[in-house]
Amino acid sequence: MKDRPFHITVTIEPKLGRFRYVRSADEARRILLQEWGEVRGPKYFAALTATKNSLNGTYPPSHARRAFIAAAIEARILADDVITPVADRRLTFAFRPAAE
Predict the structure, then answer these.
(1) What is the pTM of this model?
(2) Segment-wise mean pLDDT, segments of 10 residues, the chain, 100 residues
(3) Structural domain count, the chain
């Protein structure tokens, strides 16, 4: 399996004040398997499949990146103030202001 770099780094905050910068499909897969928290819903499992398919060359890294972001949103660990949704127009639906 060949590592597939993301075109834009994804930033997550798995623990309060601890940021992780995810730069590739391989790194995303390692985080999903080894460091992910307890929230493991359908988006988590889709991200596992997407990262594996990207590493196998079946899909581009952008596919794994989108799936990883969706899983991070599901787990509420995406550091969305660091992400620039303009870079990937397909993700703009996912970015809404937090309820206060």
Answers:
(1) 0.77
(2) 84 86 95 90 95 93 94 89 48 47
(3) 1
Tell me if 97 is assigned to some domain.
no
Domain of residue 70, residue span? 5-80
- The answer to the question of residue 15 being in a domain is yes
Q: What is the C-alpha separation between 69 and 17, in angstroms, rounded? A: 19
Residue 86 lies in a domain: no
Residues found in the chain = 100
Cα 61 from chain centre? 11
Residue 45 lies in a domain: yes
